[in-house]
């Protein structure tokens, strides 16, 4: 893989992968989990394991208790060891109630090594809610290599991965290009096709139905891509 000097692409990934206790638990209950760090510290009871530091968060004590109980019941999770000492506001987790804990689990259930293998470097705590993970990552390769690399993650980890946001870190480029870089590949493709077809001319030279037919999607999906693109491009 070739790397551009001093240029990285920051991405927010919406991700699901199998055998994840946090995904399973947040799918069944309210509240969420922040994943902070993983340590190679297997115990005698679980020699093939890693130890992670996490924060459970929610709107109420009952919500967080239900979440922790569901995590503990997962076949993919070891014992929960709660921290008695709080660090700041439990590492600035969202929610009215936050509880930090350590948890041992099988490293084979982790998706982080697969992301790293394909060039995606973890850059912030992972947020898990509603059965999905939100990853903030940096990709140092060419932008054109992102989708093939994501295909590799999907295949190797059995994962579902979508780009929620993307930003190229080259501040020397014109602001217009940087704003275009904030679009996901599908949003940019749809927006540029609509622009080229005269959708933004007056009077319009094409319709949303024609554009939807071109991309073989519903009119609702086409409009969703355009509106999200327009929001990012027009945001001051």
Structure description:
- It is a single chain.
- This protein has helices at residues 21-28, 61-73, 112-117, 146-157, 175-181, 185-196, 208-215, 219-234; strands at 9-16, 32-39, 50-58, 80-82, 97-105, 120-122, 126-129, 132-139, 160-168.
- With 236 residues, the chain is an alpha+beta fold.
- Strands 1, 2, 3, 4, 5, 6, 7, 8 and 9 form a nine-stranded antiparallel β-sheet that branches.
- Helix 7 packs across helix 8 (219-234).
- The longest helix has 16 residues, at 219-234.
- The two termini are 35 Å apart.
List keywords for this structure.
236 residues, alpha+beta, nine-stranded antiparallel β-sheet
Summary, kept brief:
The protein is an alpha+beta fold and about 240 residues long. It is built from 8 helices and 9 strands.
> How many helices?
8
Give the radius of gyration. 21 Å
Low-confidence stretches: 1-6
Approximately what portion of the residues adopt beta-strand conformation?
25-35%
Order of helices and strands: EHEEHEEHEEEHEHHHH
Name the overall outline: elongated
Summarize the biggest pleated sheet. Answer: 9 strands, antiparallel
Structural class: alpha+beta
Straight-line N-to-C gap: 35 Å
Round the mean pLDDT to the nearest integer and report it: 84
Number of strands: 9
Helix coverage percent: 25-40%
């Amino acid at each position: 893989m070739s790397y551009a000097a001093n240029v990285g692409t920051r991405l927010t990934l919406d991700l699901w992968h199998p055998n994840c206790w946090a995904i399973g638990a947040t799918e069944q209950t309210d509240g969420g989990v922040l994943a902070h760090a993983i340590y190679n510290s297997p115990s005698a009871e679980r020699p093939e394991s890693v130890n992670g530091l996490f924060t459970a968060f929610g709107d109420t004590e009952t919500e967080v208790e239900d979440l922790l109980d569901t995590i503990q019941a997962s076949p993919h999770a070891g014992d929960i060891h709660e921290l008695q000492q709080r660090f700041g506001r439990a590492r600035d987790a969202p929610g009215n109630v936050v509880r930090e804990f350590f948890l041992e689990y099988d490293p084979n259930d982790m998706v982080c090594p697969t992301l790293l293998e394909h060039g995606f470097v973890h850059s912030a705590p992972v947020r898990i809610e509603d059965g999905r993970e939100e990853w903030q990552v940096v990709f140092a390769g060419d932008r054109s290599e992102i989708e093939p690399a994501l295909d590799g993650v999907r295949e190797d980890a059995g994962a579902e991965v979508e780009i929620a946001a993307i930003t190229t870190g080259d501040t020397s480029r014109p602001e217009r290009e940087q704003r275009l870089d904030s679009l996901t590949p599908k949003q940019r493709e749809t927006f540029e096709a609509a622009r080229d077809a005269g959708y933004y001319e007056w009077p319009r030279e094409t319709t949303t139905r024609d554009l939807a037919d071109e991309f073989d999607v519903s009119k609702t999906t086409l409009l969703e891509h355009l509106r999200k693109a327009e929001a990012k491009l027009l945001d001051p």
